[in-house]
Specification:
This protein is of the alpha/beta class and about 350 residues long. The chain has helices at about 1-20, 55-65, 90-100, 115-125, 135-145, 150-160, 180-190, 220-230, 295-300, 305-310, 325, 345-355, and strands at about 25-30, 75-80, 105-110, 130, 165-175, 195-200, 240, 265-270, 275, 290. It has a ten-stranded mixed β-sheet, covered by helices on one side.
């Protein structure tokens, strides 16, 4: 009964959030250049991308009208890529965002992160950073495609964790190579003073779509949920499963709140070519406009219907699913342009083990 009531109130809360759709996180895909070639990349970025970096002035002009509707410090601009540290003007971009009242942070692989860039980003008002670290040296370097990647990311972690002002977390892509080292890696992160660790599985999109080595078996998925559930009793580090999927009986055991894909509800993105979308990982078919011929604020307020009303997701394996009202079709990045079937469902895989 308690579980039913909790789900009822959460679903009511989600419906209200959809109605209000206040923008909280705005991702800026500032570049598609990258200094690594990760096996799982959803963007399929390359070092010599022919798509030029978006001029910061274009991005800024697109978002300034948000100040007419929101308090700027209620919105966090998350600068991503590609690898945002490949932009030499990143500190200047951040400084101007803070001048206009916006909070900002970055998502980085840490390869170029050093003491100089650390100091410059802090001076420019960076408040948050997410660092990718995918297990110990062999596992991390295999996934990232570079033998120096682990050591560079570790140097970045030491710098980041030394700042009391930064909100930061480590994010780990769980796959077949690092699965058996999660427990020892958790202890390693604790020894490095990491306070927040976020784990996610690798969706079959981008380069990962054709690499079966990156996927976990159904049994491993259940083991992962058990590992996170047990690890969350250790108060030295905040461990959680990402927002990628509804996980049935493990809801509230593996994260702080029930699954809620906020793409297009509280999360938007401006992509490298000016496209206006939600989470930057979702299929480009869901683009709602473009800053070069649409007003971003108008698009945010009046479009995004496919993400705010997700009744269309009740198809394929979702059609007769007893958990649909709680899952609401799962995460948007798992749906392709045909919108006819979700690519993978963790809850379905876990249930098959239980059955």
């Amino acid at each position: 009964m308690i579980n039913r009531l909790t789900h009822f109130f959460h679903n009511h809360f989600r419906a209200n959030e959809v109605k209000i759709h206040e923008l909280s996180y705005l991702f800026w895909e500032c570049t598609q250049r990258c200094n690594l070639k990760c096996l799982h990349c959803g963007s399929d970025c390359i070092a010599d991308s022919k798509i030029i970096d978006m001029p910061f002035e274009d991005f800024l002009q697109a978002i300034l009208p948000l100040k007419d509707l929101y308090k700027p410090d209620s919105i966090t601009v998350v600068i991503t890529g590609g690898e945002p540290l490949l932009r030499n003007d990143l500190p200047q971009c951040g400084w101007i965002l803070r001048e206009h009242g916006f909070r900002w942070g970055i998502v980085t692989n840490g390869y170029r992160y050093n003491s100089d860039i650390h100091a410059r980003l802090l001076a420019a008002g960076m408040g948050a950073i997410t660092l990718s670290l995918d297990g110990f040296e062999e596992s991390h370097n295999w996934l990232r495609g570079n033998n120096n990647s682990f050591n560079n990311a570790l140097q970045a972690l030491d710098l980041i964790s030394s700042s009391n002002r930064l909100f930061y977390d480590v994010v780990t892509c769980v796959n077949s190579r690092n699965f058996n080292e999660l427990s020892s890696f958790r202890d390693f992160l604790i020894s490095k003073n990491v306070k927040s660790w976020r784990l996610f599985t690798i969706a079959p999109i981008g380069r990962a779509a054709s690499n079966n080595d990156l996927q976990l078996s159904n049994f491993q998925l259940k083991q992962l949920m058990d590992f996170i559930s047990l690890s969350r009793t250790d108060k030295r580090i905040d461990i959680k499963f990402s927002c990628e999927s509804y996980v049935g009986e493990y809801e509230k055991k593996v994260r702080d709140s029930y699954f809620f894909c906020r793409a297009g509800i509280n999360i938007a993105s401006i992509l490298i070519d000016g496209s206006i979308s939600a989470c930057p990982n979702i299929n480009r078919h869901f683009v709602q406009g473009n800053i070069y011929h649409d007003m971003f604020l108008d698009v945010w307020e009046n479009r995004f219907d496919s993400m705010r009303n997700r009744n269309w997701t009740k198809t394929g394996i979702c059609l007769n699913c007893k958990d649909f009202k709680n899952c609401n079709g799962g995460a948007m990045h798992l749906w392709d342009e045909k919108q006819d079937c979700i690519k993978t469902c963790i809850n379905d895989k876990i249930r098959k083990i239980a059955d």
